[in-house]
Design brief:
heterodimer, A: Rossmann fold, six-stranded mixed sheet, 26% helix, B: mainly alpha, MetI-like fold, 0% strand, binds magnesium ion
Chain lengths: 340, 316
């Protein structure tokens, strides 16, 4: 078990903006830490620098309190699962899993025991003789995990390991992956661009944009208390509404909008919102009502169980609880304290 | 409501879309290839088979059937043994050398260093040179009196009185049986190495970066990655490179023709060059064709292997 830390980590590819632009990050021991951000924001580059596959332009990587910046990957006691799984196509599943052990010159008998153990944890005992191309996406992912697990590394680095699975498989894989991480208790850094994965699995989430960490916190903190408009709009679907008012941006989540009389009993100050409905989407469990508030586009979300009148073309007197309103600086996008 | 334009009569409609039909377009597009193969491969092959079973010569071009007499005559000839042995020796030995050297070169060239492009270009040069010109160049380099190689050997005191390579002032590369064979072998290696290197280089770059990264993370050092990851993943493409090199070397007559004319005393003679000497220069077309026919079974075998591998890469 170990803590992973980066100090002022920078990676510059050629000219132009840095792919990773000064990242300070420290995981807790045994933590499931998610790096979340849009495609191209530098997540993979950051992960590869932690793993030693990419030399940083500046800054340091520490694993277990030791500076490992100049050590090759094999000296870092890490295991990595790649988006493509990167199984060795010419080796059987058993040999794939045993490869890190062979490289570490573990005795043969011990190798077999370890392979059986790792295969057991991931439920792939029946696949040991197959080649990677004879496996489904989900099975490949488990083999990749078994290969990562078998050496009992200090840190797991996972780069979008679920993105090659279909939607249904992904939901159960999320569950399995998190359960697996809890069982082995190894510090895990998990890269994804999928907010559902991040929210569902992470102990903490680092939201990254353009090579910088915009916010680091628990899923609840990130969702309920976004540090800036990027985080506010990157998380949540549909994202937080932002309404310009008095030189600030007023932010509220679509699910916090409700007719005024429904919120009156909720306890707390109300902020009235005049909502001009333009379009409605019925999604089964919920309804999305698109419209305008003070000239800016906005969305409201109502559970299907609640009957809220919202006809396109008409204006409604909605409201939001004052405590659910966030204020952001219009110029910098940063959160500002104080009442709306 | 607007009126719909009158549809043209069915015949023109069909003719207009004739080329959209796979059953018409397919054979049409294949036709040039079929004509080409029949004219330039099928016809000469048929002619060669016919010649080898007849008594045709340059003087008397009538095709009188003689059965397998030409094959028997050729096989009994002492030169046949030498030519057959040399053909296989040059092919196999040069390809072993090429495979070893191409692996090393490809590995070196796949790493990043300054001037990589220039080195790649230089390595490809022998492949772009017409083989006859290359062989003439080597003929000069290996000249029995003026050889620059001999000159260098003399300068570094490896050649001349009291040195390893003997008291005489020249090596006489093409005049001594073993040196002449070595020369032919090395020229074939020099010639096929570039293609093999480029093929292997392509194979190396085709190994996914993720797989190399995974091997790094899994703790494998350079040699373990080479032996357990790179070489096994390169094997199919190595086979392709070797088969190409084999075909080129096996069927080549130019190097021997230019460098040694088969000598000294048929010691570098190969089937292809002997067929030429017998059939064209000696005028015995029938025997020349029969000699060339001995290349046929091996080439068929290689072709089958190539097609099989092509199919395997198609399906995986
Ligand atoms: N090897 C590389 N060479 C040049 N630019 C790269 C390289 N790898 C990544 N980049 C650039 O760095 C940025 C971040 O990439 P990446 O870390 O892969 O993003 P993410 O994983 O978040 O999608 C991108 O703009 C990408 O084009
Ligand atoms: Mg990525």
């Amino acid at each position: 078990m170990a803590v992973v830390e980066t100090r002022g980590l920078v990676k510059q590819f050629g000219e132009g903006a840095a792919a990773v632009d000064g990242i300070d990050l420290a995981s807790a021991d045994g933590e499931f830490l998610v790096l979340l951000g849009p495609s191209g924001c530098g997540k993979t580059t950051l992960l590869r620098m932690i793993g030693g596959l990419e030399p940083p332009t500046a800054g340091d990587v520490l694993i277990g309190g030791r500076v490992v910046t100049n050590l090759p990957p094999r000296a870092r006691q890490i295991a990595m699962v790649f988006q493509s799984y990167a199984l060795y196509p010419h080796m059987s599943v058993a040999n794939n899993i045993a490869f890190p052990l062979k490289a570490a010159k573990v005795p043969k008998a011990e190798q077999e025991k370890k392979v059986a153990w790792a295969a057991g944890i991931l439920g792939i005992e029946g696949l040991l003789d197959r080649r990677p191309r004879q496996l489904s996406g989900g099975q490949r992912q488990r083999v990749a995990l078994a290969r990562a697990l078998v050496r009992e590394p200090n840190v797991f680095l996972l780069d979008e390991p679920l993105s090659n699975l279909d939607a249904q498989r992904r939901a159960s894989a999320r569950d399995e992956l998190q359960g697996f991480q809890r069982r082995v208790g190894t510090t895990t850094i998990y890269v994804t661009h999928d907010q559902v994965e991040a929210m569902g699995m992470g102990d903490r989430i680092a939201v990254i944009n353009q090579g910088r960490i915009r916010q680091l916190g628990t899923p609840r903190e990130i969702y309920d208390d976004p540090a800036d408009t990027f985080v506010a709009t990157f998380l949540g679907s549909p994202p937080m509404n932002l309404i310009p008012r008095n030189g600030h941006l007023l932010g509220f989540r679509p699910e916090h909008v409700a007719p005024r009389q429904m919120l009156e009993g909720a306890g707390g100050d109300l902020v009235p919102i005049h909502f001009l409905a333009t379009r409605e989407e019925y999604l089964g469990a919920e309804r999305l009502v698109y419209g305008e508030v003070e000239g800016a586009k906005a969305v409201a979300r109502f559970p299907s169980t609640v009957d809220v009148p919202a006809e396109p073309g008409r204006g409604y007197e909605f409201a939001v609880l004052a405590r659910d309103l966030k204020r952001f600086d219009a110029a910098t996008g940063l959160r500002v304290a104080g009442p709306a | 409501m607007s009126t719909i334009a009158a549809t043209p009569p069915p015949e023109t409609r069909e003719r207009r879309y004739l080329l959209d039909r796979e059953g018409v377009l397919g054979p049409l597009m294949l036709l040039p290839a079929v004509v080409y193969i029949i004219a330039l491969v099928g016809f000469p092959l048929g002619l060669a088979i016919a010649y080898s079973l007849s008594d045709v010569t340059i003087g008397d071009q009538g095709l009188d059937w003689v059965g397998f007499r030409n094959f028997v005559d050729v096989a009994k000839n002492g030169t046949f043994q030498k030519a057959l042995r040399n053909t296989f020796l040059f092919t196999l030995a040069s390809q072993v050398l090429v495979l070893t050297l191409a692996n090393i070169l490809a590995l070196v060239l796949s790493s990043d260093f300054k001037g990589k492009r220039l080195v790649r270009f230089l390595i490809l040069l022998p492949w772009t040179t017409p083989i006859a010109l290359g062989a003439i160049g080597w003929l000069w380099l290996l000249d029995s009196v003026y050889s620059p190689i001999d000159w260098v050997l003399r300068q570094v005191n490896l050649l001349g009185p009291g040195t390893i390579f003997g008291p005489r002032g020249n090596m006489y590369w093409t005049a001594k049986a073993d040196l002449a064979q070595l020369s032919v072998l090395l020229i074939h290696t020099w010639r096929t190495l570039p293609l093999a290197t480029v093929i292997l280089l392509a194979g190396l770059t085709a190994i996914p970066q993720d797989v190399k990264d995974a091997a790094n993370v899994d703790g494998a050092g350079f040699w373990r990655q080479l032996i357990y990851i790179r070489i096994p993943l390169l094997l199919p493409i190595m086979a392709v490179a070797t088969l190409f090199g084999m075909v080129f070397t096996f069927t080549d007559m130019t190097v021997v023709y230019v460098l040694t004319r088969g000598g000294p005393i048929d010691n570098t003679q190969v089937l292809a060059s002997w067929a030429y000497f017998k059939g064209i220069e000696g005028g015995n077309l029938a025997q020349g064709a029969a000699i060339a026919m001995f290349l046929f079974p091996v080439l068929v075998g290689v072709a089958v292997l190539m097609l099989r591998m092509a199919r395997r890469t198609e399906t995986t």
